[in-house]
Each structure stands twice: as C-alpha cells, then as structure tokens.
Specification:
The complex is a heterotrimer of chains A (200), B (72) and C (160). Chain A has 200 residues and is of the alpha+beta class. Chain A is 30% helix and 32% strand. In chain A, a hairpin with a 5-residue loop joins strand 8 and strand 9. Chain B has one domain. Helix content of chain B is 47%, strand content 8%. In chain B, strand 1 and strand 2 form a beta hairpin. In chain B, 4% of the residues are buried. Chain C is elongated, with a radius of gyration of 21 Å. Chain C is built from eight helices and one strand, in the order αβααααααα. Classes of the chains: A alpha+beta (200), B mainly alpha (72), C mainly alpha (160). Chains in contact: A-B, A-C, B-C. The interface between A and C is large, with 68 and 39 residues.
Chain lengths: 200, 72, 160
C-alpha cells in the first residue's frame, strides 16, 4: 500500500491541511466508515427524515467482506486527515469508453466516490474539508495513466455533483444512464486529463 | 520485492496470436503488455463470477436474445 | 500508486472545487442472486420479514416505539420494515433486531434480502408464513400458529 501526501482545505480556518491518500481501502478504513460516517448519516436522517437519507447510507455486507480485494481489476483509495476518514473511492479498470472520440478504449471507471458526511454541503454547511473530490479524480486519472489508459476515466455523477464534474473537472456528459438509476454518465478525455495530471 | 515492483516474463506466442495482440493493442491504444494485463484482469474477474455460479452471457441489443459464452 | 502534486496545485484546484457535492456512483452492490428454482425475489422474503417483525412485536404487546427503543433504532426504520418491502432495510437495524429477537443475525439478514439467499427452505417457509398472516391488532389463533411454525422453521435452519 502506498501513501501520498496531499492537501485539503479546512473551511473554518481557510488553511491547507496536510492529509494522506492511501491506494488501498483497508478493514480499518471500513471500520472508520462504520464508526464515523454511518452515525453522522443516521443523525442527519433522524433530523430530516428518511427522504434525506444519503445514497451511500449503507452498502452490501458481502462486498464489505472483501470479495473484491483479490481482484486485479479493482482498485480502491482512502483519504485520511487528522486521523479521520475523509473520502473513499472504488474504481474498476475493465470498462471501455462510450464517448465517440475514444469509443472502445479502456477507461478507469469510478464505481463509487464519496466524501465524509461532514464534508457534504447537504449535511453540513460550511463543509469541514474541501478537496476530496479533486484529489480522488486526480488519483483516478493518474491510475488511468499508469495502466496505459492515458488518463481516460468515466463515472456516474450523483445529481447534485454534476456541476463539479462538468465545470471543475471539465468532463463530458453523455446522458442519463437508465441502467444506473438515471444518473448522468460523464467521461474525461485524454486532453482534459492532462490538466489533472500535471502541475498546471 | 515491494508489491508495486514489476516482474518480467517471456511470452511465447504463435504468429497468429501475436497478430491478434498487435491488432488489439492498436484498437485499444495500449501497448502489448497493457493488452495482456487487461486480459489477465478480465479473466480473473470472469472466473470469479463463474465460481460464484454465474454465467457469462451476451445479449443482442436489438432482439434481446441471450447467448452463453462458455468458459472453463 | 503515488500521487505527485505540488502544494500550489492543491491550493488552485481545491478552490475550483468550491462547496459542492462531489459524490459519484453508489457503493458496489452485488445484485441479489435469486435462486433459479424459485420465483422468490428479495421483496417476497422481505414481506415475510416485515410481517414477522410486526407479529413478534405484537406478540410481546409492544408498539413500534417500544420495539425501536429496545433495539436502539429509529421508529421510522421499524415502520419502513413492517410496511415497505420494496425498501432495503439498514443492516445495522437488522442486526439489532436479531439481538432483541434472540435470533441468528445471518438468518434475519437473509430474510431482509441483505445477504445472498443460501437456505431455500427458509425462503419458502417465509413465503408460506407471509401468505398466512396479516397485520391486524391482535394475533388470532391462525396467526399464532403461523408465527410459531415460522419460528420453528428458523430454529431448524439455524440448527443446521
């Protein structure tokens, strides 16, 4: 497992805070998810009702048991800051691009990307840390490059995150995918991946 | 050896296999090693599903007809 | 895999992110693997699960709030379990209910459609049970019979 030094911005102080990106989600991270994210999400639901339940309020326990871990085609990432789990991402590298310009070429597909409940504007304003999305997208792009995929990535954006992927990440929207709960499917081209790859 | 360090293997392919490998590499915009690694990952993922008792099927988009791709 | 960026890169790009939602996809979820020999879907056993929870509760003379308190879960969660089989229950809630019922969590998780169906007899028993009982104010003799038969089926399965 490799650890990279990254930075997140603390909203309260406005300062950049040092954090770690790990290229593997461990049992400890899943424990942290259970101990800190879950209660925060449940508290939010308790205050605002079941309608406010986040998409990722729980996940399949079989999956948690590690069926995916021996799989070469799956990669995971975790962000830790000040001892707490700030972000999670799971990707697979077996899918191909749909965007006509890169049709059929392999991409890193983001299966799941999430920031901690206290970092989400819908749950906490202002969010505690900013930057988890940016760091994770950069990680996916770097992985894509490492695999020879030239930075190509794809994902299904949650409805309120479309602005982030469209504007901040400069990804191309291909349309809502009925096979994925009608979520908008985005892809990043090699050209736009360059902006994430290098210190532009 | 650390986990992320790479090991080397010599691959013996027939002329036909090599031709297919090169064609896929061009199509997928990968080098030949990239194609072989992708193939390995795919085979592992498919094998895992087969072990769980699932089948690998293709579906015709238009007719919705399904056909099974048998893998041992 | 190492991510190499300057501190400056983070400063600039994070400011581009702003205070927005960033979520994508949903946590990896292996679809429920329905056994081929039965047309029993997760929602079917969930009906039995919901009915079972309601009957167990009423058998104790408890209302929803009392059960929620005993299990340490949200009363809304109990209501959803009892009345909305289309919704997938919280694994945490199911674990806690299993404790209160003094039952193997695995069995309840299977009934709730949260883990792969492994015991066909359980599913069939669940469907038979659900078909014979209704959530009315008191357990009538039929319901009690159905309830007890189901509890034995669970005990039998757990014993295997």
């Amino acid at each position: 497992m490799e650890e990279s030094r990254i930075y997140l911005r603390n909203s309260a102080s406005g300062e950049l805070v040092e954090a770690s990106l790990l290229d593997e989600v461990t049992d400890r991270h899943l424990e942290l998810w259970n101990e800190s994210w879950q209660p925060a999400m449940q508290a939010h639901v308790a205050a605002h009702g079941l309608k406010a339940r986040p998409e990722d309020h729980h996940w399949n326990w079989n999956w948690k048991a590690g069926e995916w871990r021996p799989m070469l085609g799956y990669h995971s990432f975790a962000i830790i800051c000040e001892g707490e789990l700030q972000g999670l991402m799971m990707v697979s590298d077996l899918k191909s691009a749909l965007l006509p310009a890169q049709f059929g070429k392999p991409i890193v597909f983001v299966e799941y990307l999430a920031t901690a409940p206290w970092n989400r504007p819908e749950i906490q304003l202002p969010p505690r840390y900013r930057g988890v999305g940016t760091v994770m997208v950069a990680a996916a792009v770097d992985l894509s490059w490492e695999l020879g995929y030239r930075g190509r990535i794809g994902l299904h954006s949650l409805p309120r995150a479309e602005a982030f992927y469209r504007n901040s990440c400069q990804m191309t929207a291909l349309g809502k995918d009925a096979a994925h709960q009608g979520l908008m499917y985005f892809e990043m081209t090699e050209k736009h991946a360059e902006e994430f790859r290098f210190n532009h | 050896m650390a986990e992320h360090e790479k090991r080397t293997m010599t691959l013996n392919l027939t002329a036909r296999e090599m031709a297919v490998l090169e064609e896929l590499a061009a199509k997928k915009d990968l080098n030949k090693t990239g194609v072989m690694r992708l193939a390995l990952r795919l085979l592992q993922a498919v094998d895992a599903k087969l072990q769980m008792g699932q089948k690998l099927m293709f579906e015709d988009e238009k007719t919705k007809e399904k056909s099974e791709m048998v893998l041992l | 895999m190492k991510l190499n960026r300057t501190k400056d890169w983070f400063a600039r790009r994070i400011d581009l992110e702003g205070d927005v939602e960033v979520g994508a996809g949903t946590p990896p979820h292996f679809p429920d693997q329905v056994a081929e020999h039965a047309n029993i879907k997760p929602v079917d056993t969930r009906i039995a699960f919901g009915t079972f929870v309601a009957l167990w509760r009423r058998n104790q003379g408890w209302d929803v709030v009392k059960l929620a308190e005993a299990a340490g879960v949200n009363p809304e969660e109990i209501l959803e379990i009892e009345h909305t089989p289309q919704a997938e229950p919280e694994p945490n809630a199911v674990f806690r209910l299993a404790k209160v019922f003094n039952m193997p969590a695995k069995i309840l998780m299977e009934l709730a459609g949260l883990i792969e169906p492994r015991t066909p007899q359980l599913r069939e028993a669940a469907v038979r049970f659900a078909a014979r009982s209704e959530s009315v104010a008191e357990l009538n003799p039929q319901e009690r019979e159905a309830f007890e038969a189901f509890v034995s089926a669970i005990a039998e399965t757990a014993g295997k």
